[in-house]
Amino acid sequence: MDNQTNRRSFLMTAGASALAAGASALEAQTEKPIRIAIIGTGHRAWAHLAILKTLPQYQVVALADPTPDNLDRAATLAPGAKTYSDYRKLLAERNDIDAVVVITPSFLHAEVTVAALDRGLPVLCEKPMATTVEDANRMIEASRKSGKLLYIGFQKRLVPTTEKMHELAAAGEIGPIELVGGNLFRGDWNPQSWKYTDPKTGIATNWRYLTFTEGSALLEDGIHELDTLNWMIDSPVVRVMASGGNNVFKQRETVDHVAAIVEFESGVKLSFELCLFAPEAGPQSRRMVLIGRDGVMEPEPEKNRVAIRKRSGGGVRYVDVVDNTPKAATAGAVGSAQDPETYQQYLRFEQCVRHGAPPLVSPEAGKTAIKLVLLAEKSLRAHRVMNWNDLPA
């Protein structure tokens, strides 16, 4: 693609994105806001609420969380919303809710989501969908039985460079994909996270340190990248192998590093690494690379472009992308979780709720992602290769 064509593609994409955002804003002026309840009001929920304040098509009418400090902080970001210490009371009392957003610790996702679906309400559930395949199946069945939407919050698919890579890979830009690599090198979990009283010790413990509440370290982070890469590979998983442990943070159940290899039916191999003791890893802290028969492709999100290097030579070619997220949506002070992709996810969710559009991430895709991660966890614990059928369908 020459520079002129590249510029034309860039401008067309920018124009289309701007028109979509404009259409959504116009609809918000002519339609009643979608009234939502947020269940789980910790740090991630604060980012959701800050973003929702910039979206007039939504109105947060209720908040639920058993932790008073978290609930009080959330209430300052959603003036007028009624607060509840028990989500079951919220669901029982409120008849004016159009949708529910679930942002609880991972082990509660299934319980809360099923309750909301049984109440006849569409649900946006944060990733991971659940901490077991069985719970994911319960959620899928509740959605099917109620006929209500279940949208899984893998918003990282909406990073502009990621969307473009998916589009280019599907179009055969680098030929059939043969090998994929990725990593997430980051710092440790937020020490201010909610504490769960571990029944084995009686000690209030950061919920991300416990297998029961978090599921696995990869389920909490790293799953975004694995979901995204699996989406691009677009082939059934055959087997998973992983190694990992606690080299630095030894006084916890969940691991602080993982190296995994995933084999796909198409013959593609995916390697992925997670590290929780690398807070200053620099530009290589979050990497994705697709290697095809005809070339190599990787994102450069900080420059809003995708880099393509063809096997035949000719140097690097860049495909520009545009992020049309308003600056106001990410200008708050609630942390890095207030990301542009969450804003874009709410635009998608609106189309699903109002017009019946299919979710970008279906519950079936959400289940595939957690099954992949849980097999990696089983592999590193058992020190053996896990086949796809080693967990329930």
Descriptive report:
There is one protein chain. With 393 residues, the protein is of the alpha/beta class. The protein has 2 domains: 14-153, 3-Layer(aba) Sandwich (Rossmann fold), CATH 3.40.50; 156-323 and 363-390, Dihydrodipicolinate Reductase, domain 2. It is 37% helix and 24% strand. It is built from 12 helices and 17 strands. The protein has helices at residues 3-30, 43-52, 68-77, 87-93, 109-118, 133-146, 160-170, 211-214, 217-220, 223-233, 340-355, 363-382, and strands spanning 34-39, 58-64, 82-84, 99-102, 123-126, 150-153, 177-185, 195-197, 204-206, 237-245, 257-264, 269-275, 286-292, 295-300, 305-310, 316-320, 386-387. The strands form 3 sheets. It has a 9-stranded mixed beta sheet with strand order 16-15-14-13-7-12-11-10-17. The chain has a 6-stranded parallel beta sheet with strand order 3-2-1-4-5-6, with helices on both faces. A hairpin with a 4-residue loop joins strand 11 and strand 12. Helix 2 packs parallel to helix 3, helix 7 (160-170) runs parallel beside helix 10 (223-233) and helix 10 crosses helix 12. Residues 1-20 and 22-26 have low confidence and may be disordered.
